[in-house]
Amino acid sequence: MASEPAERGENTRAVHLPTPPPLAQQPLAVPVYRSAAFAFGSSAEYAALLNGSAAGYSYSRIDNPTADSFAASVAALEAARRPGPAAAQPFASGMAVISAVFWTFTEAGAHVVAPAAVYGGTYGFLRDVAGKFGVRTDFIDVTDLDQVRAALRPETRIVYAETLANPTTAVADLPALAEIAHRAGALLVVDSTLAPPPVCRPLEHGADLVLHSATKYLGGHSDATGGVVTGHPDLISRIRAVRIDTGGSLAPDEAFLLRRGLETLPLRVSRQCATALTFASALAGHPAVRRVDHPGLPGHPGHQVARRLFDAGPDGAQRFGAIVTVTPHGGRAGGYALADRLRVAQVATSLGGTHTKVSHVASTTHRQFDDAALAAAGIDPGAVRFSVGLEDAADLIADAAQALDALGGIREERD
Ligand SMILES: Cc1ncc(COP(=O)(O)O)c(C=O)c1O
């Protein structure tokens, strides 16, 4: 028989400290429910939660209130103007969500169509990990719709696209891809990490699932790692089941930061997009520059598609994302020299945060690509990706200009 509290030993009393009563007032910020486990009123309640006949929380790998709040918030932003229900699932990283989507909707013998210019981690996963389990992927140019149609097979389960490709900034024609995928009985899965909800909401353009590395714009401060996928609740509940079995669940502290980041997402992204367009336009004519890729530039091959699919902000300014890929003359050496001479923009991993970051693409985000794969993806060995942050445009332009001005000697080596 349990002893009365006053008679319990000091360790028992220390472990069983009082817990706060349920609050009558809702906190404005979503609390961090940093608990791996939850307690139940009875074994029957515990069993009902685990077998899915009752809703609630049992174990944070399965579900956590802070992580759920983050996912529900993303669903609200992604599906804002889409008729019909939408749900979302939170993950520990972008790669955790990407792998879970493929584990859910493919099997040995299944076929996937993906962009040649896909994020390097996704490329590595599809080629080396899913490939080992018998999932075959054709990496093609998904902006060429004839190539997409030609690549389809009866066993194609997923047509995969990035709304705005990393780092080429190619723009996917989502309605056209959705029609092609659906006619073949496949899902259109879209990684929209580089075009978050204020820029584009792929579910409104026919995508079945939209996913993000939340580490980037959604969190926005380079201080939390996470991923999220949104779509019809039937698809999302199948992905949740795989998340529970594979364990890539989002931690509550990370979920708190990512959820907080969402509150300033439109403000941050609108400003980053405006600065990126100014920055790209200013650098496009520099003599040390071989090419500048940004969908806001009228000569960009995806400019018209972006105008059709991407949203304008409340001020009427169209948002084209905040990635600018600058390719100087001089191949790899030129790319390294440009990145290393910058003083405001920082050589740093990741993208989408408040700081402007640069990376030499071929040796970092796309290091999994050999020369042939780089060429197929349209990535120049010298390309440097700028993720434009919240600094003042004039400072970023002056910084890039001084770095490019210093490249004169390298330009002579040509490419
Ligand atoms: C477009 C894109 N998708 C997915 C990922 C993977 O996300 P994470 O690093 O959060 O796993 C990245 C990371 O850079 C990315 O750029």
Helix-strand layout with pairing:
Blueprint: H1 10-15, H2 43-50, H3 65-78, E1 87-91, H4 94-105, E2 111-115, H5 120-130, E3 136-140, H6 145-151, E4 156-162, H7 174-183, E5 187-191, E6 209-213, E7 227-231, H8 233-246, H9 252-262, H10 265-283, E8 289-293, H11 303-309, E9 323-328, H12 331-341, E10 346-347, E11 357-360, H13 371-377, E12 384-387, H14 393-405, H15 408-413
Bound molecules: pyridoxal-5'-phosphate.
Commentary on this structure:
With 415 residues, the protein is an alpha/beta fold. The protein has 15 helices and twelve strands. The chain has a seven-stranded mixed β-sheet, sandwiched between helices. Helix 10 packs parallel to helix 14 and helix 12 packs across helix 14. The relative contact order is 0.12. Bound molecules: pyridoxal-5'-phosphate. The site of pyridoxal-5'-phosphate has 14 residues, from helix 4.
Characterize this entry briefly.
The protein has 415 residues and is of the alpha/beta class.
Q: N-to-C terminal Cα separation, in Å? A: 82 Å
Q: What ligands does this structure carry?
A: pyridoxal-5'-phosphate
Structural class by SSE content: alpha/beta
Our estimate of the beta-strand percent is 5-15%
* Count of helix runs: 15
